[in-house]
Each structure stands twice: as structure tokens, then as C-alpha cells.
Amino acid sequence: MKDINEDIAWAKINTDVLRSLESPRKLYWVIVFGALAVFSVAVGCEVYQYNMGMGVANMDNPHVWGLYIATFIFWIGMSHSGTLLSAILHLMHADWRKPIYRFAEAMTTFSLMTAGLFVMVHLGRLWQFYYSLPYPNDRSLWPNFQSPLLWDAMAIFTYLSSSVIFLFVGMIPDLAICRDHLHAGWRKKLYTVLALGWEGTDRQWRNFRVTYLTIACFLIPLAVSVHSIVASDFAMSQQPGWHVTSFPPYFVAGALYSGCAAIITLFIILRYTFKFEEYMTLAILKKTVRLTFAIAMVWTYLNAVEFASVWYSHDIASKEVLIQKATGPYAIAWWGMIFCGSVVPLILAFKRFQTNIPVLLVTSLLLNLGMWLERWMIVAPTFSHGIYPWTWDHDQWPSWVQWGMVFGSFGWFTLLFMVFCKVFPSVSMYEVKEMVYHRTLASKKLEDSGMQESGKGAH
Amino acid sequence: MSKRHLLAVFSNFHEAEAAVTELRNTSIKGFDSNEDMIVKSPIEHPEVEEFLGDKPVYVQWFTLFGALMGGLLGFFLISGAQANFYAQIKGGKPIVPFPPNFVLTYEMFILGGVYITVLGFLICAGLPAKRSPLYTSKVSEDQIAILVKTDEESAGVLKAIFTKHEALEIQEEAGK
Questions:
Q1: How far apart are CA A177 and CA A106, in angstroms?
Q2: Contacts of B107 in chain A (CB under 8 A)
Q3: Within 10 A of B32 (CB to CB), how many other CB atoms are there?
Q4: Can you tell me the distance from the alpha carbon of A394 to that of A61, in angstroms, rounded to the nearest whole number?
């Protein structure tokens, strides 16, 4: 099974991808209007919460974060695989990333934008968001630069802006293709501005290559630092269940895991909606699935490490929280996390399911359900079973306002993502051409040396 | 002497490479292959750099400058704010604590590096740019073009070379 058909003509690549900007399948509109309806639920909940106060969200001491911060971590995690995997695979010259990296990077951008909303929503008074910005108040007091919460604001801003830049720079040659081949109208004007006058000259390509590689090099440690910093929001506190040394790598693995699962979901949706069967091939899906399985096993291992460290540390409060997670009011969610995060991915180990689209769609959704539950199980149980006994009878079940907001965030993300895929090419045309070109050359070389016939390839 | 622009379009890299190689090896009056020749292609093709010869890239110097300045700016901004100890009594703790300050310094190092790299890219690649005197949209599809600038009287020699190497199309425009 080949990653891509090597005989595909370059002009056809342009035609197929540009067609996706104009005539997707009807399912596209169903998804867009569905997402809009779901998003409007969140808008309604936010308006209600804003008018009535945080009490309607069932927020009270000690439960001050609830689903909002759990979902914030979920969306930050979701953002990881896009840019991080794109950058790592680019540095490793894994060319199978080329047809899928564009939408994965867009996923990063929109996940971060969704995550940012939850920071504001959980404040209640939205305008107090400016407290996290690094400037002094009228008494010359600056924010606390030693607080992980401030690090978080800075790290997310850096990651969001760098990811947008990475996405945009990688898209410039494709924007020039859109400019040259689409009919006159607002789109052509937009592409003309955004393409910056790109003509594919040797000078432009030379500088482009170095720039893209350099930004990729920066983004890898940046992505790791962002989720490590999110983990520090918890690990640097003294709360039982949070003060765990392995939290940063655990968060990074969880982020990669949920991101990879989301890539599979979106891959399947885009492949059908935009008729990308020739580019988003089953061979590429198989590679993504195997990568997801490997990361799932890393996450499972880190989970076991966390449980073992808490169990054998003999820190009574932390141990109590762990027991509460498994047997207390959140037990269904906790065991659901274990099932969806560690048992369901075992399906991905079977070859026959690695290219089975209905199975993969359901599995990838379950994996992300597991990863969302993981975030909730990090945040809520510690609040309801902290060091102080007064917290012990304060179990909190989120109100419908919190659920509505979480539900609506998926609509917001889907809406942004689908609009992006309709306005900008979600498959990188110039890189698919490069992939086809280099693979054709490699095949010819093999044929010339007679190695293909004797079966002695590089693999 | 008035200059003329020519744009030759080829269907593949081999023909374009052969034409470029001949242009580089032939002495033509009023035409310097290093200065007056641009190759346009739909993909980033490493062999284009090989047959055009080594040309330096300076983007990485912008990166170095941006990353260092970002890191320094971050560190001194934070330290400057923390050193305002008349407003913030530190209670015996270090006025400028290095380990926690490293985190934001690191983020600013990356932020500066990325932003200035992109600025360097725009400057070095000459973007945003106006359209070249001659351009064909086929370059963004599947063809390779060579744009040359030469003296009026040498244009015929260049055209002959392009024709010899099976150029699909030759466009020309009087330059300045």
C-alpha cells in the first residue's frame, strides 16, 4: 500500500485541492450548521452565567475550576499534535506528513483559541483577564512572574502566535497557487494580499526552506514547554494528587495522545467531505494510527508511574485522593478514563482495524472522550478531597451551564476549523507535488539499479 | 544600453537545468548569470540550488539576533519589575530569583527567535514583492521558468539557447 499515487499529475493536484475550496460534499454544510447550533448553546450559557453569576455554574469553594479548567487543559492538549508532530516529522524528513500537516496545524491554532476562551469564562468577570498580562497596576505592582499561571499566559501566547506564523509561512506557496488559479472575486483579492507576491523564485525557495526549518526547530521545545507549564499549574502547588514530579511528561504525553486521536477524527471527516481520498490515503492513516497507539501506550505507562509513585510515597492525603478517584463519586469518570484511554486503543494494534474507517472514527472519538475525562479527573477530585477536612463533603457535579459551555466549545472549534478548510487549502499542494516528485525519482533509481525486482529495497 | 527581459518556460527540471548550465558556461555580452537569471519553480527543488551555484542565506543571523534579544528583553523586563523592591517587599527572598525567571526568559527567547526569523525571511526573500516583469501562472502548477535580463543585442543568443533546450514558450518584454 503506497502513501500516495506517484503517477498523479501536478496540475491535477492543484485542481483537486482548489475544488475543495468551492464544492465540498453536502456533509460540509451539515457539519457547519450543526457546529453553529452547538456553539450557540455555549453562547446562551455564557450570557446566562454572566448575568446571574458563577453560582449558576455550581462553582463554589473549593470547586473554583470545575469543567472550565479541565476543558481548558483538554483543548491545550488537543493543540499539541498538530504543530509538534508537523515540526518533528518535518525535521525527520518523514514525507507522509505532507498531505495531512496543514489541517493538523490549523487544528492547533483553533484548539488554542478555544482553550483561551475557557480561561476567560472561568473568571466570571471576563474583563479581569487583563490581570494576567505583564504590566504594572497604578501602584507599580507587577504580576507575580514566579507564578505558573503567568507562565501559562505567556507560553500560550507564544505557542499560539508561533503556530499561526508556522501555519502561514508554510501556506505562502499555496496561497500563490490560489491567487493564480481562482476566479476573480473576494477570494482572489484575499489570496493576492496573503501570498505577498510569491512567485517561486530560487531566492524565495532558498530562504523559505531555512525559515521553515528554523521555526520547526523552535516549535518542538516550545510545544513541550507549553504543556509542561500547564502541568506546573498543578504540580507546583502543594495539593494532594497534583504535587507529582512526573506531571509535566505525563501532560505532554496526554496532549500528544489526544491530538493524534483528533487528527484521526478530522482526517476521516475531511477525507470524505472534501473528496481527498487520493491524498489522505489509507496508508497515511495507518501510519497515524500506529503512532497514536504508541503514544497511547506511553500515556498508559505514565499513568501507572503516577499511581505507583502516589501509592508507595505514603503521602496519606495523596493516597486518599487516589482511592477516592477509584471508589468515590467520580469513580465512573475515572474508570471511564482508564477504559477509553488504555483499553480502547488496544483495537489500534490489530492490522485489520488500522484502515477500517468506521472503527477508527468511533475509536478516535472514544480516545478523546478518555482524554477529556483524564483532565476532569485531574482537576475535580483534588478539590473535593483536599488536605483540609472541610473540603471532604464538597463533591461537586457540574451544573448544566458548565456542561453547555463544554459542549458548545466543540461547536466553536468545529466551526472555525471547517471555515478554515473551505477558505484555505487544507492539503499542501506544493508539498504533495514534492512528495510525488521525490518518490517517483526514488522508484526510478530503484528500477534502474534492478533492486525493486530482486526485492532488496531500503526497507 | 536598454535591457530586455525574457521568460522561458520548460516542462521539466532536466531541460531547465540544461539551459541554466549552458547559460552559466557561455559568455554573453550584457548578461551575468549570477545577477541576471532567476529560476522559478512550483516546488522547492534542491537541484536548482546545485545548478545555480551556491548562494548564501542570511535568515539564520536574524534568528540568532531575535532569539538573543528576546531572551535578554524577557529577562531584564522581569528582573527590572522584580527589582522594584520599594513597591514589593521581598521578605528576605532573592530580589531576582533565577530559576523561575528562566521559564519566561526561555519563552521570550523562542518568541523573539520566531518573530525575527520571519522578519528576516521577508527581507531576505524580498517579500512582499510586486509582480516580476514577466510571469506565468503555469509556474505555480507544473512548469519551470527561467527569467533573464540582458542587453537588447544579446536577447537573440539567449532565445536560441532556450529554444535549443526545448522551451515550451518564450515571453519577452522590453526592460529599462
A1: 19
A2: 151, 154-155, 158, 222, 225
A3: 10
A4: 8
| Separation in Å, CA of A166 to nearest CA in chain B | 9
Instruction: For B96-146, write each residue's pLDDT tens digit.
Output: 888 889 999 999 999 999 999 999 999 999 989 887 778 888 888 888 898
Domains of chain A with bracketed CATH: 23-427 (1.20.1630.10)
Chain B residues lying within 8 Å of A225, measured CB to CB: 103, 106-107, 110
User: Is beta strand B144-151 parallel, antiparallel or unpaired with respect to B169-174?
Assistant: unpaired
In contact, A333 and A324? CB cutoff 8 Å:
no
Q: In this structure, how many other beta carbons lie within 10 angstroms of the beta carbon of residue A236?
A: 18
CB B63 within 8 Å of CB A165: no
Question: How far is residue A246 from each of residues A94, A234, A258, A320, A350, measured CA to CA in Å?
Answer: 30, 11, 18, 19, 30
User: Which residues on chain A are in Cβ contact (under 8 Å) with B141?
Assistant: 10-11, 14, 177, 180-181
Interchain CB contact of A394 with B (< 8 Å): no
Sheet with B144-151, strands from edge to edge, namely B37-40, B144-151, B3-10, B169-174
CB contact under 8 A, A199 and B100: no
pLDDT tens-digit series, residues A419-454:
999 999 999 999 999 888 888 888 888 888 765 544
Question: Of the candidates A114, A157, A121, A160, which has an alpha carbon nearest to the alpha carbon of residue A416?
Answer: A114
Q: CA angle, B57 as apex, B56 and B61 as ends, to 5°?
A: 125
Minimum Cα–Cα distance from B114: chain A residue: A215
Give residues with Cβ within 8 angstroms of B93, minimum separation 6: none
- Yes or no, beta carbons of B114 and A225 under 8 Å apart: no
Distance CA A182, CA A174 (A): 12
A154 part of contact set with chain B, CB < 8 Å: yes
Burial A152-188 (b: 16+ CB within 10 A, else e): bbbbbbbbbebbbbbbbbbbbbbbbbbbbbbeeeeee
> What is the rounded (10 degree) CA torsion for A151, A156, A158, A164?
180
Cross-chain CB nearest to B49 (options A196, A206, A437): A206
Which residue has cell 456533509?
A: A27
Residue A285 and residue A276 in contact, taking contact as beta carbons nearer than 8 Å: no
The residues facing B170 across adjacent strands are B8
Mutate to test the interface with A, among B63, B140, B142 (most CBs of A within 10 A): B140
Burial of A99 (0-12, 13-18, 19+ CB in 10 A): buried
User: CA A159 to CA A166: how far, in whole Å?
Assistant: 10
The domain spans of chain B are 3-56+135-174, 59-124
Cα A55 to its chain centre, rounded Å, is 31
- Determine, for residues A208 and B44 on separate chains, whether the beta-carbon distance falls below 8 Å: yes
In chain A, residues with a C-beta closer than 8 Å to the C-beta of B106 are 225
CATH number assigned to the domain covering B3-56+135-174: 3.30.70.260
- The DSSP secondary-structure symbol of A277 reads T
ipTM, two decimals: 0.91
Contacts of residue A215 in chain B, CB cutoff 8 Å?
114, 117-118
Nearest to A136 among B81, B107, B121 (CB): B81
Q: What is the pLDDT of residues A227-262, one digit of tens each?
A: 899 999 899 988 888 888 889 999 999 999 999 999
- Kindly determine whether residue B41 and residue A202, on different chains, have CB atoms separated by under 8 Å: yes
